[in-house]
Amino acid sequence: MKVLGLETSCDETSVSILENGEIKSNLISSQDFHSDFGGVVPELSSRAHLQILLPLIKRALKQGNISLNEIDLVCATAGPGLIGALLVGLTFAKGLSFSLQKPFVPVNHIEGHIYSGFLMNEKPEFPFLCLVVSGGHTLLLIVKSDDEIIQLGKTLDDAVGEAFDKISKLLGLGYPGGPAIQDVANKNISSKLIEFPIAQCKREFDFSFSGLKTAVLRFIHTEYQNIQNISKEDIALIAASFQKTAVLALTRIVEKAIKKFPVNSISLVGGVAANELLRYELIEVSKKYKKKLVIPNLEYCGDNAAMIAYRGLRLHQNGNKFSLDYKAFPGLKANSFTFID
Ligand code: KG4
Ligand code: ZN
């Protein structure tokens, strides 16, 4: 079974080929020019996907040593994401499916992230607790089976990746903010971190990051009045303190959930799963509760088409069929599972 996966939901164009569930190629082309604008510009993103998608598909086929006619299944991200960007990959996939006369599977981007753990040698075991941390979403889920995913909690405001991006912008560290904050935080030499507050939400598994963002902003205004007045050392201290608080806000809720629900493993997925401190702290939590922990390799934390192809393959193998009328959707919508809120 040879699967082609396309991912164009935001600022990464990615094409992957799987053969019998094994990754033959996973090419990712990042649209770095958005950093000049301090964030993703939707229209520029769609145009860049249009330009790069076809050459990237050709390269992926070559790398996988597979010809287009051998493809058995065509999968593409249908949402959530930027609508114009989604339409590029989704429409291309529909056209390809029609011309090859091979089935087409639209994939929910978040489900793709959830299944990125299955691309690793050590796979998650059902039921597993899944923390999805990306630029657009922060979700805590229990994945009971391929078609039963229960939402325990979500962010009530900013996604954690968004908080990293905003604080990075505030500190003049650029976009994307996660890696920039992490790099600068690693340079911190002060042993005493600034104590920023962690929000307590009404529902025990929900998250909130906008208060933390405001606390950092207030701290800067009170202590320095202006960003220009902050030394490099203090920038590193603020970045490290913010990162520590954001990570703790996530891990303490994961810990609460482990205590309450009988799960066989834990999985950390999404762009922010690349964060070293978060990975380290979750390893500690998993050791404490003797749970298997699956965190994808860095290549599969951010947006990639291998996770889309893999989730699409599972949906297909489970007998799901999708029409070419399937529409792209910008918001979080479940297309195949029980997403209990
Ligand atoms: O999953 P992803 O690639 O795209 C979305 O679907 O949103 O996640 C991108 C997010 C960005 O907010 C980026 O700043 C964050 O992941 N990120 C990180 C790190 N690397 C990427 N956040 C914290 N630490 C990192 N090392
Ligand atoms: Zn993503």
What do these coordinates show?
The protein has helices at 42-64, 83-100, 109-115, 160-170, 177-185, 210-224, 232-260, 276-288, 305-317, and strands at 2-7, 12-19, 22-30, 73-79, 104-108, 128-133, 138-145, 148-154, 265-269, 292-294, 338-340. With 341 residues, the protein is of the alpha/beta class. It has 2 domains: 2-115 and 300-333, ATPase, nucleotide binding domain (Nucleotidyltransferase, domain 5), CATH 3.30.420.40; 123-295, Nucleotidyltransferase, domain 5, CATH 3.30.420. The strands form 2 sheets. It has a 6-stranded mixed beta sheet with strand order 10-9-6-7-8-11, with helices on both faces. Strands 3-2-1-4-5 form a 5-stranded mixed beta sheet, with helices on both faces. α3 crosses α9 (305-317), α4 (160-170) packs parallel to α6 and α4 packs antiparallel against α7 (232-260). The longest helix is centred in the C-terminal third of the chain and has 29 residues, at 232-260. The model is unreliable at 335-341 (pLDDT under 50). The structure holds 5'-O-[(R)-(carboxyoxy)(hydroxy)phosphoryl]adenosine and zinc ion. The site of zinc ion has 6 residues, from α3.
**Count of discrete domains:** 2
Write down the secondary-structure element order: EEEHEHEHEEEHHHHEHEHE
Q: How many helical elements? A: 9
Low-pLDDT segments, ≥5 res: 335-341
Shape: globular
Specify the CATH class of the largest domain.
Answer: Alpha Beta
Largest sheet: 6 strands, mixed
Spatial order of the strands forming the largest sheet: 10-9-6-7-8-11
Q: What kind of assembly state do the chains in view correspond to?
A: single chain
In the CATH scheme, what's the topology name of the largest domain?
Nucleotidyltransferase, domain 5
Bound molecules: 5'-O-[(R)-(carboxyoxy)(hydroxy)phosphoryl]adenosine, zinc ion
